[in-house]
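User: I'm putting together a teaching handout on how multi-component assemblies are represented. Below are the sequence lines for each component of a complex, exactly as they appear in our records. Could you produce the 3D structure of the whole assembly as structure tokens, so the students can see both representations side by side? Please keep the chain order the same as the input.
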Amino acid sequence: MSHIPISNTIPTKQTDGNGKANISPDKLDPKVSIDMEAPEFKDFAKTMVDFIAEYLENIRERRVLPEVKPGYLKPLIPDAAPEKPEKWQDVMQDIERVIMPGVTHWHSPKFHAYFPTANSYPAIVADMLSGAIACIGFTWIASPACTELEVVMMDWLGKMLELPAEFLACSGGKGGGVIQGTASESTLVALLGAKAKKLKEVKELHPEWDEHTILGKLVGYCSDQAHSSVERAGLLGGVKLRSVQSENHRMRGAALEKAIEQDVAEGLIPFYAVVTLGTTNSCAFDYLDECGPVGNKHNLWIHVDAAYAGSAFICPEYRHLMKGIESADSFNFNPHKWMLVNFDCSAMWLKDPSWVVNAFNVDPLYLKHDMQGSAPDYRHWQIPLGRRFRALKLWFVLRLYGVENLQAHIRRHCNFAKQFGDLCVADSRFELAAEINMGLVCFRLKGSNERNEALLKRINGRGHIHLVPAKIKDVYFLRMAICSRFTQSEDMEYSWKEVSAAADEMEQEQ
Amino acid sequence: MDSTEFRKRGMEMVEYICNYLETLNERRVTPSVEPGYLRHLLPPEAPQEPEDWDQIMRDVEDKIMPGVTHWQHPRFHAYFPAGNSFPSILGDMLGDGIGCIGFSWAASPACTELETIVLDWLGKAIGLPDHFLALKEGSTGGGVIQTSASECVLVTMLAARAQALKRLKAQHPFVEEGHLLSKLMAYCSKEAHSCVEKAAMICFVKLRILEPDDDASLRGQTIYEAMEEDELQGLVPFFVSTTLGTTGSCAFDNLPEIGKQLQRFPGVWLHVDAAYAGNSFICPELKPLLKGIEYADSFNTNPNKWLLTNFDCSTLWVRDRIRLTSALVVDPLYLKHGYSDAAIDYRHWGVPLSRRFRSLKLWFVLRSYGISGLQHYIRHHIKLAKRFEELVLKDKRFEICNQVKLGLVCFRLKGSDKLNEKLLSIINESGKLHMVPASVGDRYIIRFCAVAQNATAEDIDYAWDIIVDFANELLEKEQHDELSEIMNRKKQDTLAQKRSFFVRMVSDPKIYNPAINKAGTPKLSMELPSPVVSRGSAPIIRTQSSVDHNSWISWPLAFLFNSNNEEKGSNVSLRFRHLDTNVRPSSSRRNSGAGSSPSPENELDYVNVQQQQMEQRSPRRSPMAVRKASSTRDNLN
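Assistant: Of course. Below is the structure of the complete assembly, with chains in the same order as your input.
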């Protein structure tokens, strides 16, 4: 029998009726809008859309590297915020006057430093929508679409790479994926999960040891070629991290095992190893099919860092480099590097997220059952509490390009790298410092490190192309990374001519 | 998508955004979907072929929007504001378009330099002392944008830890670092944000959670007594996190008192977390709330909360940037550049190495609104909160549970916690309003926050009308259920005891070391479990830790070691409930009831008949809808 709905006319004891508002609206100041109204936003937005389209369309014409010196910006703008609102037209004008002179143009076809940072129109537009919805998705209910789109997008992405089902939420097991801001955060989160897991294991074996005694014995491993964020994760996590000597820039299982056995003999407790697929220096690939089983044998957490190269695994021809992935406990790559998704979008999968959830979160799970992955509280899978609606840009990019066009994008960059490598080899003054992998060419002038430092300085000083150096075992070389989605074959010819011209200049000066 | 299509689709998105924000009041605040709703709406794999843009936009409305909790809705009163404004959206759009990654100055000079300058702009507007501003003559400080306040607390705690360990190693060169780490103690109020606890777990240090006063404010004497006691036990205080504007009740720790007391403990890092309230200090009349800031080593506030700036934009200032960066520096060759010594390189100031060009949106917002416009906006929210407070005070059935200083009002029906939990639940389930609870002074309270950018007095009145309607119905029902009341009282007592027990637990130093004996003198021990012999160095005061699997060895990872003790787990969950939402999808409620793990939540069953009643109610027209109808009528003339 349903309850009779209450009627507003039923009297109550309250002298002011049913307690409803009876304060006059006039008591407040008249409403003064301080907001930019929609029509103004549309004008500003249209100008911005046009600006962005023209900027990216004509980016070749800009000098890739700015000529400014540190402190250039301060004299150009006031030293305090304006008291009164400014016109949007003035803000727009300052973009060219103030900002652009100091921008390093990462999307210029002449930018060959670091690794690509992706940029595409679908991602830009999706981020606009994310900004408008402006929800903060730290729990499922804080915005269900935010969480659930992320769950599905991580499964889409995992399938594109053919990750083992244990990593995917749709398998119904413990595993699942999460979008982090950067690979640095993924590496740290994995380390913290590994630490929690090992501490519990050791505590069960040695109840008399306190956790700080155990902490002092923990040791993690990575190749001497691993990214600096791995070393930093060890620093932040308060544990020792051993560098394992690589062979031809690649970490082998035997070397890892030797390091582990040596540490065990000294009474230390190995707990974590980072296997890198695509190192920053030379895009080398650790032997995951060797290191993974070694890690499993010694009960270490294996984290795979494929920040740049992971995008290439959407192409079947590169998946052999992932061999051994089933032995990993966590895997990370950055769609925001090479998959046309704007920064920040770092994809991370965990076979068992409960170790991460329990490692550093203060809101423990209510029920001790395997998470189904339908509605994870992602704030427990990451360091910050709040999170943006990043899955939107992944969703837009994957749908608007389709897998086939993303594959084509990857393959095109790999071909450009080969093209540049061929140009190097054809010039007897130059040599390759490492095998060409993916979109990276490592090259140098034959001879001393000093000559190559001078060459790089000259190349970058001309401002027409931008490279950065790397050093492996005291050999200094130049890194030519294929970065821009606007790059054409002609751009590679142009870049080679720049390198060659700089070398010519150096020869003439001798 | 080429640039021609981008221009077209970009403007279509602008239209969509304008339409979304203009008609937002017509949507339910919270979605009515259940967990897993989206999985069945989307294909399990990415499309092989490109899809049509129009199809994607249809999916945004048909599949995404049904699952969106509308944080910008005028009826969203949960948490704190999530900043959103047109200038901010466009600043982010430009940041995306430029697409540089600012880990070093050379990686894009404008990215670094605009951040330095804009942080000085904001620091000046707030009224921070000169030593926090990077470009002031002689300053060693500076500001940086982080993703969230959690990271501000974490990086400052990491820096404090590094500094403390360095000092301890100098004093005890032969002691293993793990043992030195076990001596470190951090402090915060019970009302502090959970990110302080999370940071302590990541840093692997002990955190002592202290009892605030009756106004939920942490006092200087409390800090002093705790630190003195810990020092006597051989522990090393190294970090204090204070809050200006707590999440639960917007309370303010007593910074002048705490700062003075810390003068007695050199080497302790004092951090001030003003994530929400810090924005309001751009108003001169609110600057007194910042009193004592000169004692602080670091300060953070989130423009992405109350300064109309989109997430992520959390600003952190430090007094001495070298102490921050030296804890975080890892410096490979490929990140070095010719100007490394002359420029600030922000990759050393945070956990991630890579970073977005976030300063653009802050720059756009500060210029588009001006300080005066932002001041007006903040004052408007405070007025709205005061208006709501007055409405609550006029109704004798309700009470106010905090000092309403800014935009947050904590209130409840007089009566049991269960009664208030029911009230919040039925309101949130209706989707007309969205609020969250908090625990303040061991009582369940409802948080009402003035959030929406264009909120009006009518919105406040309308929200109050909704609350009163639901309260009337609930109280009517309660009057006919005396037996239920008796049981409620019993359950309330049980919950109160559990909560009280837990609060005592987390503030009791015995949690950290059950062997602590306040009546006894500290024992000196020449023996260390470390294999390193400390011969020749000063003995370290160390107390024996008893082996007792039921006691908490240390705060970090405590849940792992006590995972078999479900009662404690349940108690712990109550501590942090204020961060969770009270909305429970129907299936979750039923599943939860059948769950194998007991939890206090299962004891607080929800009444299905109430839900049925709610479903029968017709949606109430909001004032904005009325105004829109009037506007339409006017247009016909």
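A couple of points students might notice: Chain A touches chain B through 181 residues (CB under 8 Å). Chain A has a mean pLDDT of 83.
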